[in-house]
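Workshop exercise sheet. Pairs work together: one partner reads the sequence aloud, the other fills in the structure field after running the prediction. Swap roles for the next sheet.
Pair: D.N. / O.F.
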Amino acid sequence: MEQHAIGTSPKIEARRSKIIRAAQKVFAQKGFYEATISDVAREAGISDATIYEYFTSKEELLFSIPGETARDALKNMKNILDHIIDTPNKIHAIIYAFLSFYRDNPDYASIAMLILKQNKNFLETQVYQDIRQLARLIYEVIQCGMDQGELRKDIDPLVVRSVILGSIEHLVIRWLMLGKPNDPVIYSKEITDIILKGVMF
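Structure field:
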């Protein structure tokens, strides 16, 4: 899906970011299908017509929400992992970083876990490819650990990655829906320990 673009001046980018932040809040609170462009415009303090100068549809606006966030998260994750030598601590750092990010950004977590995952059209966007880079990074960490002899060589790194991401997603969704646990980050070490028991010698 092509992104609707009208320019890249600082003023335009600032307004576009303001619209995206407003949409994130509105979609998270009301749900994507229940929310309207008028709701987003009201939250952003602009007119409906102004939003359509930047986005061709409500769905395109939804798909734009994770873009910059995903790219920043990938950059930050790489910076963190560059300062960690061994694979077990890298795995813990990944789990901790994901859980702490979702905890600190509940509206984004709601969009990512409860809305975008249900939308097949999102899989066709460039933003989704940016998010996949994070998954590839986890795969590379696991594969590197196997190559260096820190992890068992008879495991499938794709399965291990799925276990890591699945554990994070299940915990965050439960937190979003039920408010439990109060802080999902407290389980980062326990999740890490359980996973490492299955992948280390």
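Discussion prompt: The domain at 10-63 is CATH 1.10.10.60 (Arc Repressor Mutant, subunit A). What would you look at next?
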